[in-house]
Design a protein that fits this description.
This protein has 500 residues and is α+β, with helices and mostly antiparallel strands. The chain folds into two domains: 4-245, ATPase, nucleotide binding domain (Nucleotidyltransferase, domain 5, 2-Layer Sandwich), CATH 3.30.420; 253-431 and 470-500, 2-Layer Sandwich (Nucleotidyltransferase, domain 5). Helices cover 35% and strands 22% of the residues. The protein has 16 helices and 23 strands. It has helices at 48-66, 107-115, 117-127, 137-146, 150-155, 164-172, 182-185, 200-206, 244-251, 309-317, 327-333, 372-398, 415-425, 437-449, 456-461, 475-495; strands spanning 4-10, 14-21, 26-33, 45-46, 72-79, 84-88, 98-99, 159-163, 179-181, 191-192, 197-198, 215-217, 224-225, 237-243, 260-264, 268-275, 286-293, 296-305, 342-344, 362-364, 405-408, 429-431, 468-469. A seven-stranded mixed beta sheet has the order 17-18-16-15-21-22-23, sandwiched between helices. It has a six-stranded mixed beta sheet with strand order 3-2-1-5-14-13, with helices on both faces. A hairpin with a 4-residue loop joins strand 10 (191-192) and strand 11 (197-198). It is globular, with a radius of gyration of 22 Å.
Length: 500
């Protein structure tokens, strides 16, 4: 009986795999980290072969531990989104490293486009996105221009240029399928989210031949069948694909318009389900595709904070924390200082709603009495302030209040941060029972696509509630903390050359 699904979350720092049954129970987990390669300032790369080997191992390990074998009804794959690579269609060999979504080597080029108002407007109207190096298009052009074999192979019809999901499906099917899903294509800056196709004008703008890109399919559509992983897994259909953030939105049960989630990983990404119509943003957010299913396309507003978990890891590296898990104990040991230290944690620039990549992190308001705990507290509050800014922008764009925020990701284990978040938002923060909502979300979508559940109501019934963090701060305190933070952001932007 085929009553199990396997989910893969290929993320920025690791690959996770999970086998889940029709009752939403996790049978087994596997997790494997991979290297972050910093070849130059602003460059962030991954080794595609290392990621592929980790995905293979994670799948095999999870299946073997669960004893799943022939019981697998389908596989779902969640991916990093904007990270891209190129490979030889004939040999399957990658032509160098993958360029990660955090990489800024093409930012100068994208800023030129952003300053050209007609071009930037047309990009936003078609894609819902900002002209920024965060997205895939300029990274693909860089690979085409700087990898010697790339353009000659493209001219011969032998080049594949794709996001990590397309690479993994290609490898899992031994080259039989070169495909991606609509939520991932929507992150390339090459895809018209209204017409649901690659846009010829954008392809020309970035010099990307359509022939090198994967076919776009629905998020719940068959992507191919596994080959080469052994008799227990071979033949299993790949039935679902999503970007990691829409997968977390699905896993958090935000299937109705007006429901929002925030995932605290390397960065923190807030998504608001806006239903069947794309909602343009007037407040610095992105409009994107949450998923495309047989029932139709669901859109979302997206607000990214580039540094969240990476802020905590940075604090630990500086010796301000013994380890990322120690923040609560440190903050509990020292009462809040009256120095009112403020931190703008712009370690990778400012994303929504500013889109200022030149900004960098800073602490303001330090004095002789400032303690280590004050610096850590201010950094965590800075992350919470950035998320609050995004949520408030979403409320303005959607013209509706967000009555609670569902949250997931490793940083939700930090009780101090979650309390700060509730205080700054003034609404309850619902912490997921399982931190890995992305993995559960892709399992949920795979279970729906494979027919294990007859409707979305069954999927919603599998979501397990966690703890609820209620706000404690007064409206006066909340407003004062947010206004102080916004003044600090203005100073940071002015310092780094962007007048405000």
């Amino acid at each position: 009986m085929r009553d199990l699904v396997l989910g893969v979350d290929q993320g920025t720092t690791s690959t996770r795999a999970c086998v889940m049954d029709r009752r939403g129970r996790d049978f087994s987990h596997a997790r494997l980290p991979h290297r972050q390669i910093y070849a130059r300032e602003g460059w962030v790369e991954h080794d595609p072969s290392e990621i592929w080997e980790n995905v293979k191992r994670a799948i095999v390990d999870a299946v073997e531990r669960a004893g799943a074998g022939s019981r697998l009804a389908g596989i779902g794959i969640a991916n990093q989104g904007e990270t891209v690579l190129v490979w030889d269609r004939a040999s399957g060999v990658p032509l160098g490293p993958a360029i990660v979504w955090q990489d800024t080597r093409t930012q100068e080029e994208m800023e030129r486009l952003a300053r050209d108002e007609p071009t930037a407007r047309r990009i936003r109207e078609a894609t819902g996105l900002a002209a920024d190096a965060y997205f895939s298009a300029s990274k693909i052009r860089w690979l085409l221009d700087h990898v010697p074999e790339a353009r000659p192979l493209a001219e011969q019809g032998r080049l594949c240029a794709g996001t990590v999901d397309a690479w993994l499906v290609w490898k899992l099917t031994e080259g039989a399928s070169f495909v991606t899903d609509a939520s991932t294509a929507a992150r390339t800056l090459l895809f018209d989210i209204h017409a649901l196709r690659y846009d010829p004008w954008l392809l020309g703008l970035f010099g990307v031949p359509a022939s090198v890109l994967p076919e776009v399919r629905r998020s719940d559509e068959a992507l191919g069948s596994v080959r080469g992983l052994g008799p227990a897994i071979d033949g299993t259909p790949i039935v679902a694909g999503l970007v990691d953030q829409p997968a977390a939105l699905f896993g958090q049960g935000c299937l109705a318009a007006g429901q929002a989630k925030a995932t605290y990983g390397t960065g923190c990404f807030v998504y608001l389900n806006t239903g069947g119509s794309p909602r343009p943003s007037a407040h610095g957010l992105l409009t994107t595709i949450a998923w495309q299913r047989a029932a139709g396309t669901v859109y979302a507003l997206d607000g990214g904070v580039f540094a969240a978990g990476s802020v905590v890891e940075w604090l630990a590296r500086l010796g301000l924390l013994s380890d990322p898990a120690g923040a609560d104990a440190l903050l509990a040991s020292v009462p809040r200082s009256s120095d009112e230290v403020t931190c703008v944690p712009a370690l990778a620039g400012l994303a929504a709603p500013y889109w200022d990549r030149s900004a960098r992190a800073t602490w303001l308001g330090m004095g002789l009495g400032t303690e280590r705990a004050d610096l850590v507290r201010a950094a965590l509050e800075g992350v919470a302030c950035r998320v609050a800014q995004v949520v408030r922008a979403m409320e303005k764009d959607a013209a509706l209040p967000i009555g609670s925020l569902r949250v997931d990701g490793g940083l939700t284990a930090c009780a101090s941060l979650m309390q700060m978040q509730a205080d700054l938002l003034g609404v309850p923060v619902e912490v997921a029972a399982e931190a890995e909502a992305t993995l559960r979300g892709i399992c949920f979508l795979a279970a729906r696509a494979a027919g294990l559940w007859k409707d979305d109501a069954e999927a919603l019934g599998m979501r397990r509630a966690g703890r609820i963090v209620e706000p404690r701060a007064s409206e006066t305190e909340r407003r004062g903390r947010r206004e102080r933070f916004e003044r600090a952001v203005a100073l940071v932007q002015e310092w780094h050359g962007r007048p405000v």
